Amino acid sequence: MTLLKNNRYLPLFIIALAPLFWAGNAVVGRSARGVIPPISLSFWRWAIASLILLPFAWKTLREDWPAVKKHALILFILSLTGIAAFNTLQYTALKTTTAINSSLIQTIMPAVIILLSALFFRERINRPQGVGVVICTAGALLVVTQADWSLVRELRFVRGDVIMLIGVIDYALYSVLLKKRPPVRSLPFLLVTFVMGALMLLPLYIWEISQEGVFPLNNQTLLSLTYVGIFPSILAYFCWTYGVAKVGSNRTGLFINLLPVFTGLLSAVFLEESFRWFHLAGMALIFGGIGLFNWGMGEFRIFNR
């Protein structure tokens, strides 16, 4: 409790909640893979989150509406990348890959964020950061190939791992573009992006229903939808955008490294998944690469003093 009373540590605690909630999202997505199709899960996630958030955000949304209209384009792009695309890609990936693999692959996100920051905002990358990118990539490849290098030679990969890699690039782009977030307060910002993301998914959701039918409503599906509509959506996104505002996208991205830890614990309990040696080796490489990023930035602490 003392740590939470210290304003310097409170942001750390809040940011760390985001990977915990997202770890639960990976576990739910994996467990519901045979019951709720991926686009349906993603659409209802944002529809439910929007309905819950609406009464709390309506007043400030009306006040911030001029800024919303003025910056509609960047809000559209943020909704597409961070809301509609990433989560649909993740739920699709979880049909054929494990929750642990999904989370480990996401730990290369800090490296991708730094590369995209250099590309779009001309933030310089020094030699240690460049080496860190290579090490992180090697760690991700180790997980994706499961140390079977014949898969690389023959270009045979688990489909879900490749989809998850695409999702990581997409969400890294979202995190970087948050630097261009318009002057809209947190609640209306979340509501607008959630609603826009759900509307983008609506045509795909209708198409998916025509192909696979409507999923059944039972205790499992209702609990799954309730969880994904609240914790990894409203609460996690609030924590994440708060972190970017407080400590920047590069440093907030470091907290993604907590994702495989939380996912491993939750997967062991709920999915009976286990860590293999290549998971641990890949994690070690990725963590080492992230350490080089920090060293290359000349800063090991989260905050400047």
Protein described:
By secondary structure, the protein is mainly alpha-helical. It has one domain. Helix content is 78%, strand content 0%. The protein is built from 14 helices and no strands. It has helices spanning 2-5, 10-31, 38-70, 72-93, 99-106, 109-121, 127-145, 150-153, 159-177, 186-212, 219-247, 249-253, 259-270, 277-296.
- C-alpha-based Rg, rounded: 19 Å
Number of helices: 14
Q: What is the subunit arrangement here?
A: single chain
Write the element-wise H/E pattern from the N-terminal end onward.
HHHHHHHHHHHHHH
Beginning-to-end CA distance, first to last residue: 22 Å
Mean of residue pLDDT values: 81
Computed structural class: mainly alpha
Q: What is the molecular shape?
A: globular
Total of domains: 1
Largest sheet: none
Approximate strand percentage: under 5%
What percent of the residues sit in helical stretches (DSSP H or I)? Answer: over 70%
**Unreliable residue runs:** 299-305
Count of individual beta strands: 0
